[in-house]
Amino acid sequence: MKNHMISAFRLTLVMLAVIGIYLLLVYGGSKILPTKGNGEIITQNGQKFYANIGQNFSDEKYFHGRPSAVDYNAAGSGGSNKGPSNEEYLETVQKRIDTLKMENPGMGKTEVPVELVTASGSGLDPDISPNGALYQAKRIAKTRNLSEENVKNLIKNQTEKPLLGLFGPAKVNVLKLNIALDQLK
To answer: Which of 122, 110, 8 is nearest to 76 (CA)?
Structure first.
């Protein structure tokens, strides 16, 4: 019995050391990042926003991001857990499609980008695809009395390429895009 206790105590000490070293590496690594591990904070008109958390933009003069299953509450991140065979979920998605088409009548029969009508797993995705932004470009141009070409160029300039050109999709951060849109003349 005594041998087991000593072995368990040794294993506990070794694991505490390993976990402690791991935590120090992760913490130290976060501090060398440009944002110091705090996320990307953007201050606009005296208000702070986190660029890595989805924001609710419902005004027609702004680009809209992904719907949120948690009403953009960062304290309660989560999805709806409803799958593509759930009737209630399908009705919700269809309502979102109908609303999106009504808000963007100039798009006609253009296919609706999926991220504009489905929530992400966290409910807080801050990004949409370039196609999701382009789908809304006509509405934005008309609402703000801008040329559609200027809005499309803004989208192109705000598009983040895949990491090293290989990993992940191209994406547009909706908060940054809307801030740039406000600065566009």
So the answer is: 122
With H, G, I as helix, E, B as strand and everything else as coil, classify residue 36.
coil
Mean pLDDT for the chain overall:
88
pTM of the predicted protein model: 0.78
- Cβ contact 136:63 at 8 Å: yes
How many CB atoms lie under 10 A from the CB of residue 151?
24
Residue 144: pLDDT above 80?
A: yes
Q: Which residues are paired to 41 by β-bridges?
A: 50
Sign for the pseudo-dihedral over CA of 23, 26, 32, 38: negative
- Please give the DSSP secondary-structure letter assigned to residue 163: B
Other CB atoms closer than 10 Å to residue 65's CB: what's the count?
27
CA distances to 2, 50, 75, 158, 179 from 47, rounded to whole Å, are 61, 10, 19, 21, 12
What pLDDT does 175 receive? 93
Q: Please, what is the Cα angle at 89 between 86 and 91, to 5 degrees?
A: 110
pLDDT of residue 185: 66
